[in-house]
Amino acid sequence: MNTLILNVTGMRCMGCVNSVKNLVSALPGVASVEVDLASGRVEISHDPARADLPAIRQAIESGGFQVA
Amino acid sequence: MNTLILNVTGMRCMGCVNSVKNLVSALPGVASVEVDLASGRVEISHDPARADLPAIRQAIESGGFQVA
Lengths: 68, 68
Hints:
The structure is a homodimer.
Chain A: E1 2-9, H1 14-25, E2 30-36, E3 41-46, H2 53-62, E4 66-67
């Protein structure tokens, strides 16, 4: 497992946090997702052979959030 | 185009509203999505032959929101 740390903007409440968690967790190869609302820091533990950055970015952006 | 009106729970702020709008709008056959945060009312104009309720429900639930 690798750890990917992203800065995600557009999250305003715990509903948004939950949304990002759900969208990323649904990807194959993602083991865990931790989100800090205040900083926008999203830490993703994943198998890089199965879940790559473009797929993770697309999942986050599908919910209207942005990866900085 | 048909209009589908759903009651969606779990939205707490305009970020959540934006998330639901993005997730549903991305489906083929969806023409427009209007969301009222206070009531949870989501009004979806869609082609029922291309976007059916199970697909719409799945898109909303992928973001961690619930269709009542």
